[in-house]
Give the backbone structure.
Amino acid sequence: MSYPADYKYTKEHEWISVDGAKGLVGITDYAQNSLGDIVFVDLPKVGDKVEAGKIFGSVESVKAVSDLYSPVTGTVTEVNETLKDAPEKINADANATWMLKVDVSDAAELNGLLSAADYEKFVSEETGH
C-alpha cells in the first residue's frame, strides 16, 4: 500500500492533508481494507468542533463499526455529503476520499502526527508484515 507523502497520519488510521490552516481528513487505505465494504459513515455537522485524538464520527462496514478520531483540533467547515449515499467511495480510493474539511486551530498538533514513512512502519509493526 502506498500513502501520500504530503499527508500526516494518526495511529488510529486517519489522514490529514493540510493547506495553510485548512485540513482535509479521511481514513487510510489500510483502515478501509481492514474494515471491508463500508456501508455507512456518521460524520459531524458543519460548525461542530473536533478535538485532536477525540472521536468525531464512525464508519460502519459489513464487518464492524469503527470510531473515527480527529488528527487535529478545529472547526468543521464542510462534510463530504456524497458519502451519505455512496460510502463505498472510501473503499474505492481511501487516499483521495475526504470526509471532513477542518479549520485547524493549532498547527503545532501536526508535529505529533506520523509521516507517510512512519505510518507505513507503524502498520507493518502492527500487522507483522
Remarks:
- The domain at 8-110 is CATH 2.40.50.100 (OB fold (Dihydrolipoamide Acetyltransferase, E2P)).
- Strands lie at 8-9, 14-19, 22-27, 38-42, 49-50, 55-61, 65-69, 74-79, 100-104.
- The first helix runs from residue 29 to 35.
